[in-house]
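Box S1 | Example of a co-folding query
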Amino acid sequence: MQTKLKLYNSKNRALETFDPLNPPFVGLYVCGPTVYSEVHVGNVRTFNSFDLIYRYLLHLGYKVRYVRNITDVGHLLDDTAEDRISKKARLENIEPMEVVQRYTVDFHQTMEQFNALPPSIEPTATGHLIEQIELVQTIIDKGFGYESNGSVYFDVAAYNNHHNYGELSGRNVDDLLSNTRDLDGQSDKRHPADFALWKNAEPQHIMKWNSPWGMGFPGWHLECSVMSTKYLGKQFDIHGGGMDLKFPHHECEIAQNKAGYDEEPVKYWLHTNMLTFNGKKMAKSEGTGVTPREMLTGDHPLLTQAYSAMTIRFFMLQAHYRSTLDFSNEALQAAEKGLKRLMVALNSLEDLAVSETSTLDVSDMHEKLYAAMNDDFNSPIAIAHLFEAVKWINLIADGKETISASDKEAFTKLLNDFVVEVLGLKNESNNDGADKIDGLVQFALELRQQAKLDKNYAMSDSIRDRLKEIGFEIKDGKDGSTYTSL
Ligand code: AMP
Ligand code: ZN
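Box S1 (continued) | Returned holo structure for adenosine monophosphate
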């Protein structure tokens, strides 16, 4: 019997049975990156965690609409009033949209390397300005927002008379001081906890649009309220993001939705934990923000070697998404070995001999794997069971256990479903074809060696010349021939 999926709803701080609002459809919204620089592997962990969740929901047969936005305006730097993208554009003397394009493309390439599935819709904040302006107006009209010197703020006190600001993060309104990300124009606010819905743009500000309140730009939290509602409805199933976004970002999103649309927007809030370095959140500002490119080349002072994208993905999957994961070369090296063991075993499955009967209980393995994933997407437990399956494969290969033909078929499907479809791991060595090309060239060199031994020099020269035409330079040495790719 299969257990039902349970997930940890961080709004209620409880494990809950997953009952989508409108099955088999599932609406999933995840806060995407601010595209002002390369992502670091900490960011990648968050997106990989949601990729696992998305993949498992798809695997269970849900028709998931996965919306993940691109923040291309409105995300201000913590210590200044400057937009992150504008700042990069100013420093590099390029258009803000060039910054956005460069890092959006880079982000897509990165996530593809990690074998993360693309979302169903990837809307941008700048593509939804009309809708954002409309929501600001609605919030003002309903008495939960006010204009002040060309900016519009959300009136937390007015909202709190009807609702509970702080319901997600557990914060108390009275305790909330000036810890919002928008520090300029603070004196325009009625209350320090009020947050910007729309910001007046100074003349030198590059990214600005016309609005009923003058030239300005949207507050950071607004885009997610607007785009989740537009594509998933006023109420949808799952909203996710890193834990660091719970406050103020997600708290503000809930307030905007309730104020503007009179609905509790999200049924299940999922928050993923941080990738840390020596126990501290990995961050660019700390010098610990290792980028995927640096990981793949090994070119960073924190790295003792290069790691492949699948090793990094596997390393991340070995921790539960709600636990912190500490970055270390030792853990990555262990993941590299573990992944190899898993993939070698998986590839050897088809060669296993079958017997009349099975001495192993494949249906029990089936139960255990689903039970692990149904328990709030517990990938480390699922991986522990997969390693037990690796032991089984080796025991069968050694003739110490047996498997029937039908069990072998079920076992092969089960392991492939989990390793490839749910965990999203792929065989890297076969993927780029490099191993196969190397094998072919080595084979040609062996034929040439044989031709030489047979004193068929015309043939050995012809093989060398053909390889050169194709793009391989052959060097003959004492210990045989080697080649370089031209
Ligand atoms: P940002 O582009 O800063 O908005 O961040 C994009 C996503 O990465 C957010 O969901 C953050 O919660 C997440 N994030 C940032 N730093 C880390 C980290 N060290 N570990 C895991 N996730 C992170
Ligand atoms: Zn968001």
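The longest strand covers residues 236-242. Residues 31, 224, 241, 249 surround zinc ion (ligand 2) (CB under 6 Å).
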